[in-house]
Every structure is written in C-alpha cells, then in structure tokens.
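Bug #77: duplicate submission created two jobs. Keeping one. Sequence:
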Amino acid sequence: MKEEFISAKVLGVYVTNTKEGMSPVVFLDCGEKVLPIYIGTAEAFSIQLALEKMQYPRPLTHDLLINILNGLNVKVEKIIIDDLHEGVFYARLILKKDNDEYEFDARPSDSIALALRTNAPIYVSRKVIEEAGVKKDKLDI
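Kept job's structure:
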C-alpha cells in the first residue's frame, strides 16, 4: 500500500506550558487537523524569523545551509514528516541537483526552517496526522 501524504502549512510557533516548563511548539495545518510538534528554542527562533521574513545581521545556521546549497546549485525540493516513534517526529529532506534527488534524515524543526526559507512544500504522512494530529476545534491558537 502506497503511503499518502498531505500538504501542510506552518500556522505559527507558540510557547506552551508543559510539566518540564515552557516549551516552543510549531503548529502545522494539515487540512482537517493541526499537527503540534515540540521543538527547540533555537529552531523556534529560526522558524519565527522565516515566518516574519526577517533578516538577521549575520547568517544563522539555517541561512548558512541555504547559502551553501545555493552555491552548489542544489534546491530544497520538499520536506516530508513521515514517522513518529515514542513522541519523536522524523522527517526527510529532499534535495535536488540537476535531475538527481537526494534524501536525508532530518529533524522536522530544521526541515521546516529550511522549507520556509526556500518556499519548499511541506508534506506530512496521513499516518502521522492520524496518530498525533488534533482537530482544529480542539485548539485555541
């Protein structure tokens, strides 16, 4: 059976209160559901900068990677969030150079930061959405 993927858009980065303290979470709009993914503070900052189209005075890590990829004529083709194990999300970064595609294991937060900077599409597997997605009417964002 072929896996089905749903196009997703970043709704925003928010800070939530967890039992460990305050934690950033990125919300992906996956159609009927929203996918919350807890992320690190640095990645949250990077994603928020990209959402607001703000330029930092010096390249941050994600900006540096984009500069390197551009210099090598490599395009961020898409990102795919395709797995979830014990509360940890997994993603694949799909890069394209000429007619060749390259796939890399990546954290969703880094992948999202790159996708926002390059206007690359974000996809989430239906299986992950069914497992961790939240109906939109259940969220107050």
